Amino acid sequence: MKKLFFVFLTGIFFLIPISPSSAVENQFGGHWYTLFFSNQNFSGEDRIGDKDMRIVDTQARLYYTAVFHENLKFVNKFEFSAQWGDTELGDIGADGTVLEIKNSYADFNISQINITAGIQGLVFSRGFIFDDDAAGAAITYQSDLADIQFFWLKAYEGGAGKDANDYDVDYYGLTPLFRLGENWQINPFFMYIYSDDAKNWTDEEGTPFFGDNAEEVNLWYAGLNLDADFDRFSLWCTGIYQGGDISFHTENRKQDFSAWLAAAGASISMSKGDIHGQFFYATGDDGEDPDQENFWVPRGQSYYWAEIMGYGIIDYEYSNNSPGDQISNIMAANIGVTFNPLSNVSYRLDVWYAALAEDIYVLNGEKYSKGNAPAGANGESYLGTEVDLVLTVELVKGLKMDIVGAYLFAGKATTQDSPNDANPYEIGTQLSLSF
Question: 118, CA 20 to 30 Å: which among 85, 185, 330, 407?
Fold first, then answer.
């Protein structure tokens, strides 16, 4: 019996080199950039300067995918980054230990169904609701006329022990995409956030998203994306309603969510560029009634827009009282042009106007909403008008350089009427390559 077992193991050993695993295709790729930039007066004044920075930053992402066959892939993405001169990687001697895992997931097909399971990136409703990496699974039914996706993300794990699952926070989403001919796409969607007890779910600074008195959370988003793409003209629009409620441990009450977002954009192509523009409005909370009227996603939302007020290419900081990429309590409009005089040269000029949907009230450096503002507080909404200019040049094949200049004519909601009012500005250069 032992001899037969030994023969069996020996046979398996010699079969390994010719097993199906030897046919795995290894795919490698990645992205790298080095960014030199200066942000000044982002706090709306030029005395304290707590948002001023002059930094050189390098980031690399390395991708490895094992392709077993057309119906199975194993996808991995790794990242490391450093500010030049920091003590983790960018100092003399380097030798940093800052490698991060961005993604690691299986991607496979069963008939017309695609499944991804693991730590993966997901974009939902253009980023107005979600654009981030997370642990979860997505199931997509694919056909010529529609792709219908359901996803589940684990936002927070409550841990082990009796009733520990009560502290879990989960995202569930349904997003069918219907193709109407060659030019139109329509995408109704729904996302639901649930926790039986959300008091332990905190941001990176340890602050509970719903407060340390929060209990059951039922938060949902329903909306529609529409896209049209013709030869020289493209159009998109998005509408989202946020509803649901939250209960509290020590209070016999619930707070309702009631908020919305609307956005639209268009582009007209020309022989050497385009004319483009967009608009979005997200409700804020005036504090005059108990409902939560501030359009808000606890975690995962990311929509980049203006260079200073909305991150843009240099995404280290945004100006005072702007929501940045967390689109909430704001109305903003943009018009811009792109000009391509040569095959390797592009200019992009954008002008942005932005204001808060609900005034911010300031007194002695403290900020308030309308409903709880003390006497003497001044209400302001105008964030400012921003001008952005980006020059993009392909220096050699595969290596791109972006030169960024941006200036914000700041409104009083940005400066808070400080005696040291100053307009924010930003300059930077980025080298990047992808492979």
Answer: 185
